[in-house]
Amino acid sequence: MDAMETDEIVARLKAIVVTVEPEVAFIAKYGGTLVESVPGQPKSQFCGIFAYTNHVSLEFTNGALLDDPEKVLEGEGKHRRHVKLASLSDIAGKRCEDFLRQTRDLP
């Protein structure tokens, strides 16, 4: 995966996040981008986007609570789950917008 494709995936994910939750704040932290639903409120972080050499990871703060019957989400921690994206088509194929809408609606 080249840097241009990585940048395209990150840009597309950010655009989807804004579509799902228009008032978000993107915070550069931990080598990636954290997303706050209430700007300036770290406790409102609901996802993060992190670029790696071979994939981009879309991480969900409370991913363990998301409905995932196809077992798309990865991770086995107490709370967090993530999706690894190696191409633009993975964004739709791995239901990123659906997961973002679900995580936005969590209490």
Summarize the structure.
With 107 residues, this protein is an alpha+beta fold. The protein has three helices and five strands. The protein has one domain (3-105): Aspartate Aminotransferase, domain 1, CATH 3.90.1150.
Task: Give a verbal description of the structure.
The chain is α+β, with helices and mostly antiparallel strands and 107 residues long. The chain has one domain (3-105): Aspartate Aminotransferase, domain 1. It is built from three helices and five strands, in the order αβββββαα. It has a five-stranded antiparallel sheet. β1 and β2 form a beta hairpin. α1 crosses α3 (96-104). The mean pLDDT is 95. InterPro entries: YdhG-like. This is YdhG-like domain-containing protein. Residues 8-102 form the YdhG-like domain. Pfam families: DUF1801.
Structural features:
107 residues, alpha+beta, Aspartate Aminotransferase, domain 1, 5-stranded antiparallel β-sheet, 5 strands, YdhG-like, YdhG-like domain-containing protein
Architecture, according to CATH?
Alpha-Beta Complex
**Order of adjacent strands in the largest pleated sheet:** 1-2-3-4-5
β-strand amount: 25-35%
Q: Span from first to last CA?
A: 36 Å
| Number of domains as seen in the coordinates | 1
Shape estimate: globular
H-E string: HEEEEEHH
Rounded mean pLDDT score = 95
The total count of helices amounts to 3
Tell me about the largest β-sheet: 5 strands, antiparallel
Count of distinct strands:
5
Instruction: Report the helical percentage.
Output: 25-40%
Spans of 5+ residues with little confidence (pLDDT < 50)? none
